[in-house]
Amino acid sequence: MSVIEAKKLELVFQTNDGPVHALTDVNLGIGKGDFVSFIGPSGCGKTTLLRCIAGLETPTGGDLTVNGMTPDEARRSRAYGYVFQAAGLYPWRTIAGNVRLPLEIMGYPKAEMSERVARVLDLVELAGFEKKYPWQLSGGMQQRASIARALAFDADILLMDEPFGALDEIVRDHLNEQLLQLWSRTEKTIAFVTHSIPEAVYLSTRIVVMSPRPGRITDVIESPLPKERPLDIRDSKEFLEIAHRVREGLRAGHAYDE
């Protein structure tokens, strides 16, 4: 059974200029422990689909389940952690305080909060930075703190909306490596939105290629790459072949739209 399953999913926004078809006929299943990346041009509905999974947008047609529940039920049951494009840390809270915030809202006991905060900061290699404030950390470290916050209540699903898009290439490479290691250690199900073909190919067990609006899936690529992936795997024949297929899928989607 899929952890996340969409069948004939549709989303139409009503605007003053008429209806906007954001998603159409989206069919997808994401299994437990999968790392699935969504890639497509700006405005193709990648983030909208992620927000539907998170219960932050309501589809206007089709079916969508998360852990066998509606997205709204899954949101209320804390089934997922969500990492946004910007770290979104409160500047007046320490790093530990930011990571602890969802646990405070959920009413965890103090001792358990402290244990969970220490554990997830160690997971993202921020142990020792508990008392620092966001402005004292680099952009990459802030995003790692944001990931730690999403992991703090140990949801099985991690939804990530272009978390590394604003970072330079060297930092992004390092965080890609760290994310793969974290995924391997935690075995969480990850849905990841990106504009980067190399990032999608490097990280994913499956790559979902989407077309320009109305957003639809044009290809789902199963990755043959091993779970252990050093950065230099990006120079391999297999990696380059997958990247070529993703690129061709994106071009085909544009041609279809025109």
Structural write-up:
By secondary structure, the protein is an alpha/beta fold. It folds into 2 domains: 1-79 and 162-258, P-loop containing nucleotide triphosphate hydrolases (Rossmann fold); 88-154, no CATH class. Helices cover 38% and strands 24% of the residues. The protein has helices at 46-53, 71-76, 95-106, 110-123, 139-151, 169-186, 197-203, 237-257, and strands at 4-15, 18-30, 35-39, 61-66, 80-83, 157-161, 189-194, 206-210, 217-222. The strands form 2 sheets. The protein has a 6-stranded mixed beta sheet with strand order 5-6-7-3-8-9, sandwiched between helices. A 3-stranded antiparallel beta sheet has the order 2-1-4. The radius of gyration is 18 Å and the shape is globular. The two termini are 37 Å apart. The mean pLDDT is 91.
